[in-house]
């Protein structure tokens, strides 16, 4: 073993100096650029996933007048996403024979809030009985629409990532994610 | 071609929920269980257990590698569902109803977390939750059930019933996986 000082003494401190030289700066630039392209596209992918999870949440929420479903619409409205088919779908809840109440839907929409950042979206439904319908009572079964959406959301995002990474691998570059068919997801 | 009359899928949800009920009542012998009842159990204190479902078409396929037994690879089918387990009690009959439902909650969580696990000394804490085919006599072991090992395997909330505030309930929504050997 050759002798060399393991660290450089400066005053009372012990410090270690290290110089790194990148011999292929063009590759570094490529990876650097890739990183920002990846993040930008991942933001798009995340939003697509949230749109689908939000639509699933509407679909899984029980419907009588439409107020409760209206309480989940603010985020989709803000992004001009069409959720009409999810709103009218009763395949996951009880059969609906009464006409929807436009007034009740409007009330629900007025009680729908959201907060949004790049990788976090919070949906708030302030319709007063939302907890009871979600969790149930001693004489009514809970519908667990929010809990089920949480699990379904994991699957939706996973599906988006799998499809996107496969497409990127196929094309040999980072491509823009494609929106999937929400019902098929 | 049609399904035979009286068809039963031996590793479907019916077998899974039957096996789960069998396990709970074998492991927790001092509490009352009301299965497939999502509302107030007929006897209190008691558990209400009901399946909620979580179906993802294509999420899990046949031929998953489930692990190894005696050096041999075991392949099987992995499936999942959500089950709600609610621990109920009535404060007019039992003054410490809240304490009671917490204890009942603890029993369920302990059983689910320790089923098939071993302690540091190598002793099995509780037997695994086996999946049985009940169409044969005697029943035959065809797989295993386990609690999802991820962070959100159990979602729980303690509530006072809004209809009758004397009823206290601990609600657990759990994600279970079950694996069928092939």
Record the SSE blueprint.
The complex is a heterodimer of chains A (185) and B (182).
Chain A: E1 8-10, E2 13-15, H1 25-60, H2 67-70, H3 74-78, H4 84-88, H5 102-110, E3 112-117, E4 120-125, H6 130-135, E5 136-137, E6 140-141, H7 145-171
Antiparallel strand pairs in A: 1-2, 3-4, 5-6
Helix pairs in contact in A: 1-7
Chain B: H1 13-27, E1 32-35, E2 46-51, E3 64-69, E4 72-90, H2 97-114, E5 129-133, E6 140-147, E7 154-160, E8 167-181
Parallel strand pairs in B: 1-2
Antiparallel strand pairs in B: 2-4, 3-4, 4-8, 5-6, 6-8, 7-8
Q: What does this molecule look like?
A:
The complex is a heterodimer of chains A (185) and B (182). Chain A has helices at residues 25-60, 67-70, 74-78, 84-88, 102-110, 130-135, 145-171; strands at 8-10, 13-15, 112-117, 120-125, 136-137, 140-141. With 185 residues, chain A is mainly alpha-helical. Chain A has one domain (25-171). Chain A has a two-stranded antiparallel ribbon. Chain A has a two-stranded antiparallel ribbon with strand order 3-4. In chain A, helix 1 runs antiparallel to helix 7. Chain A is elongated. The relative contact order of chain A is 0.14. The model of chain A has no long low-confidence stretch (mean pLDDT 86). By secondary structure, chain B is of the alpha+beta class. The two termini of chain B are 24 Å apart. In chain B, strands 1, 2, 3, 4, 5, 6, 7 and 8 form an eight-stranded mixed β-sheet that branches. Chain B is globular. Chain B has one domain: Phage minor tail protein U (Alpha-Beta Plaits, 2-Layer Sandwich). The A-B interface holds A 132, 135-142, 144, 147-148, 150-152, 155 and B 38-40, 50, 52, 54, 56, 59, 82, 84, 88, 152, 155, 157, 159, 161-164, 167, 169, 171, 173, 175.
């Amino acid at each position: 073993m050759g002798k060399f000082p393991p660290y450089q003494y400066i005053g009372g401190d012990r410090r270690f100096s290290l110089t790194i030289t990148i011999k292929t700066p063009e590759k570094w630039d490529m990876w650097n650029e890739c990183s920002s392209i990846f993040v930008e596209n991942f933001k798009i992918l995340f939003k697509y996933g949230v749109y689908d999870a939000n639509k699933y949440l509407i679909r899984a929420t029980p419907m009588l007048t439409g107020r409760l479903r209206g309480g989940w619409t603010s985020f989709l409205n803000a992004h001009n996403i069409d959720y009409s088919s999810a709103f009218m779908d009763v395949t996951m809840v009880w059969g609906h024979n009464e006409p929807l109440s436009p007034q009740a839907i409007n009330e629900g929409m007025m009680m729908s809030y959201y907060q949004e950042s790049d990788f976090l979206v919070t949906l708030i439904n302030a319709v007063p009985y939302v907890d009871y319908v979600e969790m149930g009572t001693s004489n009514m079964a809970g519908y667990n629409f929010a809990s089920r959406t949480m699990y379904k959301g994991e699957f939706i995002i996973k599906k988006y990532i799998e499809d996107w990474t496969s497409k990127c691998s196929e094309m040999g570059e980072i491509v823009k994610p494609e929106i999937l068919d929400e019902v098929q997801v | 071609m049609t399904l035979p009359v009286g068809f039963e899928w031996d590793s479907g949800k019916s077998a899974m929920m039957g096996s789960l009920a069998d396990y709970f009542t074998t492991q927790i012998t001092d509490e009352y269980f009301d299965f497939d009842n999502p509302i107030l159990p007929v006897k209190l204190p008691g558990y209400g257990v009901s399946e909620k479902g979580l179906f993802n078409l294509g999420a899990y396929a046949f031929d998953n590698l489930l692990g190894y037994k005696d050096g041999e690879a075991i392949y099987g089918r992995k499936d999942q569902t959500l089950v709600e387990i609610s621990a109920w009690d009535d404060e007019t009959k039992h003054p410490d109803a809240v304490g009671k439902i917490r204890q009942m909650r603890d029993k369920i969580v302990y059983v689910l977390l320790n089923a098939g696990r071993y302690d540091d000394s190598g002793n099995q804490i509780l037997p695994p939750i086996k999946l049985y085919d009940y169409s044969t006599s005697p029943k035959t072991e065809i797989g295993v059930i386990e609690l999802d090992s991820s962070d959100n395997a159990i979602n729980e909330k303690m509530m006072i019933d809004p209809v009758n505030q004397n009823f206290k309930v601990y609600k657990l929504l759990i994600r279970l996986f079950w694996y069928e050997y092939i």
